[in-house]
């Protein structure tokens, strides 16, 4: 029924396995830029059947004229930013203002994207990490295949300690080692059993966030109960596009827990609208990269409940968590500590309730054709435990609050690297799995949906 995680074939560069320590090393350690072109790619993998994105009814690349216009606009944008900007700083820190917001860090990274791309497998926005602990120092995280001491590198091979952007705003640069582990191994979905997971897979009479949903060839997790902002304002649910849409089955029907052809299940509804990728300027409201072809992984699908589906079986609370608050809208002009370093939880049909930390935002990587891709969240599970397992795609990512307020939805999981590659964060500890997520607020706006968190909202009151 469910196959191995989908290889998205985004190839930013190569990487090799390493036992080196990573983010806890100070600035006298650098990344090695001379990586073999045949090395494996840094890429997250989504759960679901393999298929081509290019011929999906729900997906289309911008027209060539649109790309041409965007390329001119992009060139003008960065050309204007270049005025008064100093080159990267080696050996000392700049004297201007230190970057504190997501927008400032993303702008600095975009301005220096060419030099960073030459050195790295990808980059992200976050805090420096020393000895496995997040500091409060804003930084551009640079992913490399191998970290070595500065004495083994030429001057031109060393990453700068800091980068300066428009207006003299600057930030630190932190090097993160990405360890690659070869071809993916088949991961059995039923490897974890708890009472919570059993309920999510069909033993519970109600469905809601975290429940198993399935199409003809894939299954994953129901992310959230939502209402359309358009038309008849139907109530339905949100999950990943790659969970809901299989191009071999044009009706795109969804079931819980399974399609009748594969086991017991009830028809939930058919996909009404979905998306895979969107250009960076439409997603972030800015040009986040210098490449003319720059896209963000959106990966969402809206499935209105069928007219004959019993809505009494829908639960707006999250099983294992309880009631949730409003969507946490990510404002790029907010301080990065409003997002990075925050604790999160998720409930998914494979691994149930797990906890983690948002380590980075706007992870950037490039394929072999030079197309630039972004994914919003990089989450690492707590205590060396993975935040997601295969089949958890679509799960809601919830920001927790130390003062007892309701957890606030901030994203949905679309993939991870549990059996592909890992980030090594601490000396003497094994590398850690990481999870990729989509910014929920932006996805809801793109698909014209509102989150339902109360029974009154479910009834349209």
TrEMBL record:
The lineage of its organism: Eukaryota, Viridiplantae, Streptophyta, Embryophyta, Tracheophyta. Residues 1-10 have a biased composition (Basic and acidic residues). Residues 189-456 form the Nal1 C-terminal domain. Residues 97-176 form the Nal1 N-terminal domain. This is Trypsin family protein. It comes from Ficus carica. It comes from the Eukaryota. Residues 1-48 are annotated as: Disordered. Pfam families: Nal1_C (PF25819), NAL1_N (PF25608).
